Each structure stands twice: as C-alpha cells, then as structure tokens.
Amino acid sequence: MAALDPRQHYGEGFHRFERALGAAAPGWLMALRKDAFARFAELGFPSTKQEEWRYTSVAPIAERAFELASDGAGELSRDEVEHSSFPVYACSLFVFVNGRFAPHLSAPRALSGSPFVESLASALEHPSERLEPQLAKLASYDAAPFVALNTAFLHDGALVQVPEGVAVEAPIHLVYLSLPGRGPRVSHPRTLLVMGRGSRATVIEDYVSLGVGPGFTNAVSEVRLEAQAQLDLVRLQREGAHHFHVSDVHVVLGRDSRFAAHDFSLGAALVRKDVAANLAGEGAECTLDGLYLASSRELVDNHTLIDHASPHGTSRELYKGILSGAGRGVFHGRIVVREGAQKTDARQTNKNLLLSRDAEVDSKPQLEIAADDVKCSHGSTIGQLDEASLFYLQTRGIDAPSARRLLMRAFASEVTSRIHQEPLRDEIEEILLGRIAREEAALS
Amino acid sequence: MTAPLLEIEDLCARAGGEEILHGINLVVRQGEVHAVMGPNGSGKSTLAGVLAGKPSIEVTQGKVCYFGRNLLDIAPEERAREGVFLAFQYPVEIPGVSNMYFLKTALNAGRKHRGQEELDAIDFLALVREKMKLMQIDEKMMNRSINEGFSGGEKKRNEVLQMAVLEPRLAILDETDSGLDIDALRIVSNGVNSLRSPERSMIVITHYQRLLDYIVPDFVHVLGSGRILKSGGKELALELEQKGYAWIEGGGGR
Q: I need a labelling partner for A302 at 20 to 30 A (CA). Which of A207, A237, A339, B155 fits?
C-alpha cells in the first residue's frame, strides 16, 4: 500500500467539501477556507523535529485516510445520546453530530438562556457580516496546521453570544459527538464564545464518540471576554481508546474579566490540546486547570500558553496527570509576561502520578518574563500512590483496589474541587470515577 | 478464664533491614486490656505494625493466632473487617478524601463482610453523630479531608472516633497518648474506656505510665530489645514509673 499523501488526501476532501456547499457561503468565508487550506497544504502535519511537537508524533493521524464525516445525526435517537448528557444537572443541551448541529437531539431549556446559543451554520446563513469580525480572528492558523485544517472545513459548530450584563444561570452543555462510519472519519467542530461586558456563563464542551472505530476530532474554540465578563469553561474529552483528539483553544481576556478553564482528558489513542490565553486587559484573572489520564498506550499532550500582556493580571494553572500502563503524558506550560505587565501574579503547578514502570511523563515549564515587578512561580512533581496512605485505608477495612481508587480520586479532586457549581462537579466526578475504576483494574 | 483471642508465639520480625522483635510471647483473652510499655526502640510500634499487617515489616519467625486463625496470612483489610483495629501513632493525612466518606466506606466494608446490610447516608450520620459527641469532634471536622491540618490531639481523637464507629474486637492503640495535653488525654481516654466491654480486647502501647491512670489495664508488659522482659498487673506500671526502664533492662525486674 502506497503511503498516504496528506496534502493530496485532504486536498481532494477539501474540493469535495467546497463543491457540496456550492455558493451557499458568503464570499469572505469561502476566501477564508481557501486561504486556510492553502496554509495547511504548505505546512503539512507537524513532525517531531518541531519543538512544539517533540514528544508527540502525529504520524498515526497523518497516515490514516480520515474522510470528512457527513451528517449522520438523522440515524440517531435521543436515547442513543442520552448517556452523553448529564442525568441530574439541568443544562441547556446542544448536540453536534460530527460537527453539525442536531436540533432534534438537543434540549435547550427555553427559560435558561438558550437564545444566546445557535449553530454557526445557521448564523452564517443569515446576514453573516456580524460574524466576520469575530470568526477566525483569535485562532491563527499561520503556524498551526490543525487550526488551518479546521478553518478550511469550517461550516458548523456552536456560537454562544452572551449580551452585556446578562448572567446565564443554566450551564450551556455543548456535546460534540463523533459517529463512526465505514472508514475512519474526521470532524472539525468549531466553537465561538463571545462574552459581553459584565456577562456571566458556564459552558461545557463535551467531546464524545459512539462506537469504537478510529475517529479523529480536530476542534477549535475561540473565546472572547469583554471587560468584567466571567466564564467557566469545562472541557471534557472522553472519546475512547481508538480516537484521536486534537484541539486548540484561544482565549482573549478583557479588562477585569475572569476566565476559568477546567479541562479533562480521559483518554484516547492520542490527545493533543493547545490552550492559549491572552490577558489583554488590565486586571484580568485566568485559571487553567487540567486533569489527564492515560493508560495502555494512550498519549495526552497539553500545551498551554498564558500571555500576560497587561498589568495586574493574575493566572493560576494546575495540571494533574494519572499515567499507567504504557500511558504517556506531556505537559508544556508556557507563561509570558510582557514588558509593562507589572504586578503580574502567575503560578503554575504540574503534578503527576505514575502508576506503572512503563508510564512516562514529560513536564516542561517555560517562563519568559520581561517585566520586573512580578510574582511568577512554577513547580512540577512526579510520584506514586502513597504507601502509608494505602496502608492506613486498608487498616480500616478498605480493600487495596478500592483504596487505590480512593487515592486516585483524591489526587484528582484538587482539580475537580475547583469547579464551583456543585451539581456540575458531581457529574464530572461521576464520569471520572468510571474512568478511574478502569485505570485501577488495569493495575492489578 | 475466657477464650484466647490473640496468641502470639515466639514472634520475630525485621523492619528497615534490622531485627526488631526477638521472640515475643503474649496471650490476650476476650475483654482484657493489656498495656505494653517500653523505651523508644524497644519494638512497641513494630509489634503493633505486625498485628495490623504493615507491609514493610517482615515476620521472620513465630506465629500469631487470632480466633484460632493464622493472622499473618490475612490481608490488612480483612484483618480490619474481622475486628482488628490499629490506632496509629502518626495518623496519615489524606487530602481529597473526607473523613465522613472514608468512615462510611470503612464501616460498610466491614458490615458487608459480616453479611450485614450497608448503612445509607442517613443511618450512618445518625450513628456517627452520637460517637462524634463522645469524642468532641464537630461536623465541620468530619467534612474535611482525613486528618488534613488536624492538630495532634484532633488526629488522636479522630483515631478513637474511627474505633468507636468500627467497633473492633481487638484494638491496638499505638502511643495514643503521645503529643496530647491533659484535656485531650481525658477525651481520648474517656472514648477508649467507653469502648471497654467483655467482648472487646485492647493492647495499649505507651511509653508513659500517665495514660494508664486513665485507661487502667488488666496486665502490663514491659518490652525491651524486642522481648517482653517482665509482665505483671497494673501495679507494675507504677513501679516502672518510680524505678525507670533501666531497672528492668538492668535485669532488676526479673
């Protein structure tokens, strides 16, 4: 079998995609897609010779002929996606199947602020000029081939716009569901969150797959917070062991705004996440928390960038990993403090539990500080489950597997406890418990 | 005389590459309280560790029978479910696991093992509240992580609270008095005394006689260099207090 040429493969896919859409899209969008694809064709998939990709080979993605997933939502009933929604918590639920909005699977709660959410595709059908200054402005694809590819295939996704001063009480739950096809399939979910001045919301990006076939999710999210806006963004990756997940999140924080990301990677053949937060406005507060689990031969790679561009910014970053089997974790946390960003207060922590001899983690902080009156710290730890704690639990009648699960859960709780809404935290912990049980079972 | 609950025969054990216990013999019957005293390094905590199943201690010789079963063959969690309880000298802090959740899990593990129905949250709370009052532990403390940020006294009270909830048949208290001021000592002792019963035996390990003013033992054993050097009634502790450990180690007590 001849090796796959990604440029040619995705080029053909791109032409089919363009043809299928016809002239339905506005001119600026067609031009954007063409430009993005041209950039992808120039860049190609990254190689491990590039510093940013040193620890993560994307060859398993590049070598597979992923076809663009077409809309398969019609085949699905709400029951089939039931397990993807949170059973207890009253969220506004928006389901996207292979990147396309599926209204019949969604259950927006009329009174809870769903008017602020719509599908990108329908927003682009209407006079779309209002989106032009927003879309693809934060997520630059100039040096990012996966972002370029997502932008080339930009068609649908979630658009969340919370107007000035509005507090959305019910969390907005965006489920991005990958549906398997006959062959390997790719989808390019896109999310655009625009938080108006002084607005408040909680948004959950939830990446799920049905079935076990190999799939590839290539997601891009752009988040803009105007002054004093507050956003909690929970990102849940739970697509499963045969899936490939690449995502980019770009956030820009206005003056005195507050952004908190709670990122969970619960395992896939390969997960690569890039998060870039730009503290553009003075006094902005940014929290990036993450929890990643990798077992057997899974790989989770988190690259984060916190860019302090203005004075009086605060950032807190806590990433924790549980690695077992031949699982690998990568954490690369870059913090930039620009000249003039005085009184910046930045703290970064990365902690890892290595549960097997073959598990591995590469942890790399990178601080670039160009201002002199700042507080910046970072710390990184790698350890095992504490034997004394295990024994203590056992002496109270708790069997060793349960004790190990309890300690893993305790390790994770430092991240989950920072989700302030209790029902949401409970939902996440419940999902996590299932994952931890699998992790523990693989140990013995 | 009641039936023996615990029979230790010629027990030898190593820890940290060193022989610590050199042939311990001890019989504990139901309802008895035995004090084990001795200077630092005499092997008191190693003995406690052997009984609880601490993995870093290696038994090199001897037997330990618990209700006629070979205790050394049983995993630590099963020993606990069968009624062995160790109150730690240094209780472990476990951030991220609440005391309440931990204790409920522990209690239900034991109940399940004994074929009893597991307690739900409401019944458990009712049970634990009563014991909390006894140990002067409030609900706020119970909702905090296991021993995290607890003072020395709070940790020891928490150990005895766990004992009160789990209702062991053999309780081993490893220097439960260490680091306690007089008020805490009184609370802890009251808790322990309230748990004395004809069905429950205790091994109270201590360096000082002081604790035995509060928890009055039936027997006192003096440990030195990994052996029991002398056994007697509660008056032995007083004699020891007056004469010091050197008296026994020098062979005076024999």
A: A339
Which residues touch B2 (CB under 8 Å, ≥6 apart)? B29, B30, B31, B32, B198
- The token duo for A386 is 């504490």
Q: Does residue A95 have a pLDDT over 60?
A: yes
Q: What domains appear along chain B, each with residue ranges and CATH number?
A: 4-249 (3.40.50.300)
B75 touches chain A (CB under 8 A): yes
Digit-coded pLDDT (tens) for B205-236: 998 889 999 999 999 999 999 999 999 999 99
d(Cα A322, Cα A293) in Å, to the nearest integer?
5
Query: Does one domain contain both A407 and A273?
Result: no
Q: Is residue A346 part of a domain?
A: no
Domain boundary among A225, A251, A281: A281
Report how far residue A13's alpha carbon sits from residue A314's, in angstroms, rounded to the nearest whole number: 43
For residue A369, CA distances in Å to A33, A334, A346 come to 36, 11, 11
Of A281, A306, A322, the residue at which a domain comes to its end is A281
Torsion of CA B204, B206, B212, B217, to 10 degrees: 30
Q: What are the φ and ψ backbone dihedral angles of A267, each rounded to 5 degrees?
A: 115, 135
B68–A contact, CB cutoff 8 A: no
Whether complex ipTM tops 0.90: yes
Question: What crossing angle do the helices spanning A400-416 and A387-394 adopt, rounded to 10°?
Answer: 120
Which residues on B lie below 8 Å from A387 (Cβ)?
55-56
**CA neighbours closer than 13 Å in the CB half-sphere of residue A278:** 13
Task: Flag whether A259 is in a domain.
Answer: yes
- State the pTM of this model: 0.92
pLDDT of B251 reads 60
Q: What is the DSSP string of B179-224?
A: T--HHHHHHHHHHHHHT-BTTBEEEEEES-SHHHHHS--SEEEEEE
Q: Given an 8 Å threshold on Cβ–Cβ distance, is A396 in contact with B102?
A: yes
SS3 of A405, please? Answer: helix
Q: Which of A301, A243, A306 is nearest to A278 (CA)?
A: A306
Query: Which amino acid, residue A17?
Result: F
d(CA A308, CA A368): 10
As a whole number, mean pLDDT of residues A156-175 equals 93
Q: What is the sign, positive or negative, of the torsion defined by CA atoms of A52, A55, A57, A61? A: negative
Q: Among residues A345, A285, A344, A294, which one has the least CA distance to residue A319?
A: A294
| CB-CB under 8 Å, A395 with B52 | yes
A397, A406, A411 ranked by CB distance to B77: nearest? A397
Position A349 in a domain: no
Give the number of beta-carbon pairs within 8 Å between A and B.
80
Q: Residue A420 sits in which domain range?
A: 385-444
Neighbour count for residue B16 (Cβ, 10 Å): 8
Task: Name the minimum distance, in Å, from the CA of A425 to any CA of chain B.
Answer: 14
For chain A, give the number of residues: 444
Encoded tokens for A444 = 């013995």
